[in-house]
Amino acid sequence: MKIAVLSSYTIDLIQKQAAKYLARQGISAEWYLAPFNQYSREILDPQSPSKSFMPDLVLISIDCDEILHEPDKIISLIAAASKQYESATVLVHNCFLPRNQPIRFVEWNQPISRRYNRAKFNCAIADAAQKLKNVYILDLESIVEKFGLEKMVDSRLYYLAKMIFSSFGTQKVAEQLATQILAVKGKRKKCLILDLDNTLWGGILGEDGVEHIQLSNDGQGKAFYDFQTYILMLYQSGIILGICSKNDEALALEAIEKHPYMILRKEHFAGWRINWLDKIQNLRSLAEELNIGLDSMVFLDDSPQERELVKVALPEVAVPEMPKDFSEYPEYLAQISYFETFSVTAEDVRRGEMYAQERERTEFRQSAGSFEDYLQALEIRVRVETATDFTIPRIAQLTQRTNQFNLTTRRYTESEILCFLEKIRWKVMGISSADKFGDSGLVGAALVELLEDNVARLDSFLMSCRVLGRGIEQAFLTAVLNTAKGMGAQVMKAEYLPTEKNGIARNFLIENEFILDQRGYFIRNLDALFEIPRWIKFDE
Amino acid sequence: MSDHNNIRRRLRKIIAIVFELEESNLPDQPSSQNVSGWDSLGHIGLILQVEDEFGIRFETEAIPTLFSMDLLADEIERVQQSQALR
Fold first, then answer.
1. Domain B3-84 in CATH 1.10.1200.10
2. What's the pTM?
3. Across the interface, do A156 and B60 touch by the CB < 8 Å criterion?
4. Which residue in B has a C-alpha nearest to residue A158's C-alpha?
């Protein structure tokens, strides 16, 4: 991960803190700090040092006091940066610091007012971020709002060293920066596992009874109601929810279904372990059932003992502390940064629903006759198409998240995918699938590069595990091989880069008559392609 | 007088941590002249760490004059005394 920082003030301490924070998350970043105040040149000059550095992320941090009155200048710089660093993510911080005007009572009455111009400025750069694909905002305004200007800045350091933030402020800004860098890397957790008593509601269900647990739309119980509302927002942004609780299952499910103020119902949970077994065993088996790694899980439990147990036995699982006082629960979720992301795709919004469909499919399979009868009866339809503006975010996300059925596990950002698309010799394809139980959305992606001498190289081929085993992966491979043929290739050369988890993808190549050559590539002649499984229909 | 030595002992620790050095490798009289990394930027990092550690706040004017452990120690004592009076 390479990060370039273009700044108009001294940002070294923030950079150091952010680097430490990233190291703790297992990311070692390489940094380029442009000389003080050289940001215009760095952005505009195609030969500038930050260009040859080839960053994955560019942070533009300009002391807003200097540019508050010229938003146009900064907007055009941002637009230039978006183009000049087209395969990078560009992060721009917004403006937080209107030192008050000497005569405060007319602050908003004058067009030169700092507060007024700050509001205009922040809107203008937000507009730019909404228009430009790879530009995002580092929201200093909201950090300062949260902790207060006095705590965040240190005017001594400004006049001594052109630093803006206090020791405390440096810490907070660095944390936010590091979190956003992690989001660029697609290091988002997938799954939130929740305890019940004193976590989703107040009190002990088994002792207090359904009607006496604290959960309501006003008074103290509202804290839990609001907490659940926030969790629902995470669910709607693609986080899979599960339960791990020491409770009586029938009683707990009854509370979840019947309590008038439960926000989260059975339909929102992809799985649960409500029993008296230890939580370590339960988390392991939940991970297996949901087919996700323990390292994609976050576990929330009010009990410090349970947390400690899980932390020690399952270090891969993220176990954040919980506030002691439940009134802090709702706000708390905004502070744990495991679920930050840069884009919420259409698939994210519907992921929970898709897991529910998956349960229905499993039940249906048990009632159908042979496996092929079942596949026929599913009425599977697929659509294979070149990546578009609508599917690029999801394709990038799949490259970042798919660990098992993934030949090379190359991780790409949206901007990188966009770059491949513009190259004539490259094809970026996605496959969507649907069946009688519902639409699974975009479930696979492939990147193909046509080399010299009629050979196509399979740079990436990956499928979401959810849909495997129904012939969809064969259908996709056939479509991809056909496309390579259409590009003029006679041979497909597939790369396989082994990881701990992706052996299944190698087997798939062998099943489909790819042959390992001496140099470690899997080769397949494109003369005789397989037919697409009978039970799958292609949508145009 | 034990207070005086105590401050120095704590300062040595902080200087070693901030500049990522072994405490035993620090010169007897550490200063910006003989500690690598103690440049103007490193100085600010050190000052902030010292302030956090001692719970004090230096004045703007003083900060750019405190380029050695001894100067820092004297200033810490001065600030502590004036804070105690208040």
1. yes
2. 0.65
3. yes
4. B60
